[in-house]
Amino acid sequence: MRAMHIPSDHPLLLRIVDDLATHGWSQQNIFLPEALTRALAAECRKREAEGDLAPAAVGRGATQEVREGIRGDQIQWIEPGESEACDQYLAVMNSLREAINRGLFLGLEDFECHFAFYPPGAFYRQHLDRFRDDDRRTVSAIIYLNEAWLPENGGQLRMSLQGGVEHDVQPTGGCLVVFLSGDIPHEVLPANRDRLSLTGWFRRRGNEPF
Ligand code: OGA
Ligand code: MN
């Protein structure tokens, strides 16, 4: 795979910034090159096969617990230097972080993300991505890694937008969804096949106690 550099003034990134500013969310059906999407999917599958993924927990810190009635996905956080594909994705998201900071003055400091694997039947009940006791998560970004997804496969991301409007996103490979973490309630509907994604958050600096 050829290394790529997406500058932070790339038209696709500027469109996302513009969408965020006007609607609080953005959906780009063709965001990542197919080769990178495939490489990330293979990396997620490999981690799943090797037993590296762990049931996702709800909450954070001391109150964190696994609750399959709320979410049934399995995850693994990614760190720089683990694979070429992951590093390329992190580089793209860093350009998006710079674009958002330039356009919206959000002061996003870093990006954290994890692979998420939903086995058939798994779901994630409606929630907001911002924790009550930690409001650093500011912008959520999810890239889907599934080939040839059909509506009848289920697994849609259902976003609850202003005015009670619901918007469903098919988790089709290469599609990116970005939204303001504290503003848009959303859920993952159960699917009838494996559902792979990379889910992440751009974070602001925390209000650290002195
Ligand atoms: C999450 C989440 C949505 C999706 O992990 O917080 O809402 O479509 N994921 O995978
Ligand atoms: Mn979420």
UniProtKB/TrEMBL annotation:
Residues 109-204 form the Fe2OG dioxygenase domain. One of its GO terms (molecular function) is ferrous iron binding. Its cofactor is L-ascorbate. It comes from Pseudomonas laurentiana. It holds the Pfam family 2OG-FeII_Oxy_3. One of its GO terms (biological process) is cellular response to hypoxia. InterPro entries: HIF_prolyl_hydroxylases (IPR051559), Oxoglu/Fe-dep_dioxygenase_dom (IPR005123), Pro_4_hyd_alph (IPR006620), Pro_4_hyd_alph_FE2OG_OXY (IPR044862). It comes from the Bacteria. Signal peptide: none annotated. This is 2OG-Fe(II) oxygenase. The keyword Nucleus does not apply. PANTHER family: EGL NINE HOMOLOG-RELATED, HIF PROLYL HYDROXYLASE, ISOFORM C. SMART domains: P4Hc. The keyword Thylakoid does not apply. Keywords: Dioxygenase, Iron, Metal-binding, Oxidoreductase, Vitamin C.
